[in-house]
Design brief:
The complex is a heterodimer of chains A (237) and B (230). Chain A contains 9 helices and 5 strands, in the order ααββααβαββαααα. With 237 residues, chain A is α+β, with helices and mostly antiparallel strands. Chain A is globular, with a radius of gyration of 18 Å. Chain A has a 5-stranded antiparallel β-sheet with strand order 2-1-5-4-3, sandwiched between helices. Chain B has 2 domains: 139 residues, 2-Layer Sandwich (Beta-Lactamase), CATH 3.30.450.40; 57 residues, Arc Repressor Mutant, subunit A (Orthogonal Bundle), CATH 1.10.10. Chain B contains 9 helices and 5 strands. In chain B, strands 2-1-5-4-3 form a 5-stranded antiparallel β-sheet, sandwiched between helices. In chain B, α7 packs across α8 and α8 crosses α9. Chain B is elongated, with a radius of gyration of 19 Å. The chains are: A alpha+beta (237), B alpha+beta (230). Chains A and B meet through α3 and α7 of A and α5 and α7 of B.
Amino acid sequence: MATQTRASKVSAAFVKLTDTLVGDYDVLDVLHTLVEECVELLDATAAGLLLADPGGELQVVASTSEESYLVEVLQQQAGAGPCVDCYLSGTVVTLGDIAAYSDSYPDFAAAALSQGFRSVHAIPMRVRHRAIGALNLFRTDTGDVSPEDAAIGQAMADVATISILQERTIREDAVVNEQLQRALNSRILIEQAKGVIAQISTVDMDEAFKRLRADARAHNRTMRESAENVINRRITL
Amino acid sequence: MAEWSHSDGGVEDGVFCARFLSELPVNGAAVSVFGGAVPETIVCATDDLAARLDELQFDLGEGPRWDAVRSRLPVLEPRVREGAHPLWPVFHAELMHTAVAALYVFPLTLGAVDIGIVELYSTTPEALNRNERAKARVMANETAWNLLDRLLRLQETANTDPPDAEPMEAKSAGSPLSRREIHQATGMVLVQMNVTPTNALLLLRAHAFAHGRTVRAVASDVVARRLVIS
């Protein structure tokens, strides 16, 4: 059949995302779908999403690869990098040529360049006047993202924000924090479950994550539920 | 079994409790931390009654704190003087000798790890409205995060970092909780030692303490299968 037009791909991505928003959805499932759709749809090689923890520090909660090379680059810039600037300012931060920022963000630039990432686009996740985290798009080429990609990326980040906060709860600050904390907590649970799987089945952490996600999908569970089952030893993956 | 003792962080214990009192309309707060199989230690209490309520339940082996520990869910008793309390009759009878009218107990958990509990009391019935209860849950979660962060920062402030510490690790001086290896190692150790997630983390910490290393460094070794905790 004919190749899909850009518009139909974008709308398909949003349908897929909103499909994950029904019923008792898990925020992490939504965020993983989101980062995957970002690299499908946009001119990006890798994507990652960071949320602020109770100490105000950014934590990687979803990324297109669970392998440490990407997670390290993402977490590295949580100290000083475009992501934290984006989060603190609540505005988009683009580094069209990461190499040119070796002075401003030495650790981040070194980590990103060593993995072949040469440009990055950081999009804030905003609730009214407050940012709760940021979505990062990495490319292996230098240059800024196109205005169209930037707009679609922002729309994706907005969907992610809504998935975390749900419209009806946005009015209360305490509830905003509670949802955020739940997402961060789920992430910890998943890491613990990955450890259990890695130990029992002698696989690496990336494979452990894949098994966790496959189980969640196969049984129509959230990853959080699968992780709880693994830790309580009700299931073995 | 290992304990969450040796709290050598820079934060004064009292701040964990004081925040609840300054931000919520309650009269007292107590935070206690689990020590694995052995007795729990009270981290702080804002007044004698708050401390006594916790001790009483601990000595009696009954009370809402135990319900919160077992279920890992908050236990809200906005009108604790009224009605029967079949799960904790003795503690309830003791409560009637105090001025306590409302009790709110929140478990401090992070992932599958149980860190402790926070107990709030008020002499006014229904002291907390819906929004304040949500705020209390958020504050309990922040407390869990901060307590665990402090407990895992073992050795990190000292300049005794072993030379084998990974360079990446040395550079990112953020919270140890941001290190995925710590949570992954917890999962591995709970299988290796057939213990609860809480005890697995306690064992990691105890190993780090005994060897003068950071919890991060020990966790990295466990994940890389260079080290088996035994």
